[in-house]
Design a protein that fits this description.
The complex is a heterodimer. Chain A contains seven helices and 13 strands. Chain A is an alpha+beta fold. Chain A has a twelve-stranded mixed β-sheet. The longest helix of chain A is centred in the N-terminal third of the chain and has 21 residues, at 20-40. In chain B, helix 2 packs across helix 4 (68-92), helix 2 (16-38) packs across helix 6 (115-124) and helix 7 crosses helix 9 (156-179). The longest helix of chain B is centred in the middle third of the chain and has 25 residues, at 68-92. By secondary structure, chain B is mainly alpha-helical. Classes of the chains: A alpha+beta, B mainly alpha.
């Protein structure tokens, strides 16, 4: 090593020690500034999808229409023969401007964040999807109209391929998460015999409808028959009929234990194009494999 | 790089967790950089806190054009430079310059002086400010010479020369400490 490299390394390798308690206080002041700044932002900039829906004129009108039919729906809601009424066409109208959705999974422990970006076309069909469902970005998938890119950090590979099975899984994930189709998707699984549904319809219209879907062992995921029973609890806004959150419970020692919750955020602006393209973010020395049929 | 872009995206949408991740990711680098630039760990703490507070206040409208680390390093360098200029001005107007750093120190210390950091800070103090800045931004801020030259408002060659001269001087200072 040359003397220049030596001194560079010595400077680079200087380590610092930080007092954890004082550090926490410093971050507290940063967080406070952040919260103040968030409070100043207009409501439209807030991320929650449900607030955004009620701000739009068209969705307000549609929501008003939905209120008018809420009573009728509520009466028939417990009858499963009328589940098609719960296809909530009015709601789809109310939420037709949902083009860009972001989901985040808040786990009960310290596990890695799971997240998902979805871009829909004007007809509400999923066009582009990105999922980060593994710790430390070990595996990232980007799906665009049938074509998939999969980045595997450990193997340092980027695979581009067409796989009907994967496309089916991605579209299933979208239907399960999309606030417009999550309930319908659960009923589809019920018709197949994979899940049992229970509904709690509170008299207080401000409280959400609670739909519990208990999956039989091995039926929670399409491709993992070894999984135990899971329960998804969907919270449905009584006014908009949109799913506002999905809690996940896992059967352990005879009890359903809370696993985490999926939350959805509406994005008004299109996502950056780079979110749906792994080419640029993949290291230059990564192995690039392409399989197309 | 893309992780940063996504973190910024979430940060702009009000995610506390994204802010915490950005802070945890770059805090130490910025502290080292600020300590080397300011020759004072108390001042370094203030610089880093200021940088992150300002960054936090930009939520919702922050736009990342280059690297996030480069952006934060540039902010820290600009603050350190302002403090340095203010110190110089006070010296020329006859004020007691020792007040500057002592006033800026936080009552409860955040950054604990390690031996290595102390040695480096002392050695850095003997470089001209421009040399110190070039060395620090290059080695702690991981900035390109082009970016440092832009910040210093000089040509790339001048920045490279400041960097080389700074390293030569540091080598002789630190080596002489070892042989003492």
């Amino acid at each position: 090593m040359s003397p220049t490299e030596n001194i560079e390394k010595r400077i680079e390798n200087v380590r610092i020690a930080v007092d954890a308690e004082a550090n926490e206080r410093v971050f507290g002041s940063i967080l406070q500034a952040f919260k103040k700044s968030k409070a100043k932002q207009p409501a439209a900039a807030q991320p929650n999808i449900w607030r955004t829906i009620m701000k739009s004129k068209i969705t307000k009108l549609a929501a008003a229409a939905v209120i008018a039919v809420t009573i009728a729906l509520s009466i028939t809601f417990l009858d499963k023969s009328v589940t098609s009424a719960y296809a909530i066409e009015q709601t789809i109208e109310a939420s037709r401007d949902l083009r860009f959705l972001y989901f985040e999974y808040f786990g009960s422990g310290d596990e890695a964040i799971k997240e998902c970006w979805i871009e829909f076309d004007p007809n509400g069909e999923a066009k582009k999807v990105r999922t980060n469902l593994h710790a430390d970005w070990q595996i990232v998938h980007v799906w665009k109209e049938g074509k998939t890119q999969t980045w595997r950090k450990k193997e340092n590979t980027l695979r581009t391929y067409e796989d009907k099975g994967f496309t089916a899984k991605i579209l299933k994930l979208v239907r399960d998460c999309d606030p417009r189709t999550a309930v319908e998707s659960l009923y589809e699984r019920e018709r197949k015999g994979d899940v049992k549904i229970e509904i709690e319809l509170p008299a207080n219209k401000k409280k959400p409808i609670v739909i519990k879907g208990t999956f039989l062992p091995g039926k929670y995921l399409l491709d993992n028959p070894t999984l135990p029973s899971f329960r998804n609890v969907l919270y449905v806004d009584q006014t908009t009929k949109l799913v506002t959150g999905i809690e996940v419970y896992e059967l352990k020692n005879g009890k359903y234990e809370y696993n985490g919750v999926w939350k959805c955020y509406k994005q008004d602006q299109p996502f950056e194009a780079s979110i749906f393209d792994l080419e640029d973010e993949t290291p230059a020395d990564a192995k690039r494999l392409t399989t197309m049929h | 790089m893309l992780e940063d872009r996504l973190l910024v995206w979430k940060f702009n949408r009000g995610s506390d967790r994204a802010l915490a991740r950005i802070y945890a990711k770059y805090r130490d680098d910025l502290l080292r950089l600020a300590a080397a630039l300011s020759n004072d760990t108390g001042t370094a703490e203030d610089i880093v806190q200021d940088v992150f507070v300002t960054f936090a206040q930009s939520a919702g409208r922050f736009q990342l054009t280059g690297s996030l680390k480069g952006y934060l390093a540039t902010c820290a360098a600009n603050r350190a430079r302002n403090i340095n200029l203010a110190a110089k001005r006070r010296q020329t107007t006859g004020l007691d310059s020792s007040l500057l750093t002592s006033n800026l120190k936080t009552p409860e210390r955040w950054l604990m002086d390690g031996e290595e950091l102390r040695q480096l800070t002392e050695a850095m103090a003997q470089l001209s400010y421009d040399q110190r800045e070039a060395v620090t931004l290059r080695l702690h801020g991981r900035m390109k010479f082009r970016e440092i030259a832009k910040l210093q408002d000089v040509s790339i060659k001048t920045t490279q020369s400041r960097y080389r001269c700074g390293l030569d001087k540091l080598r002789s200072i630190l080596n002489s400490e070892v042989t003492k």
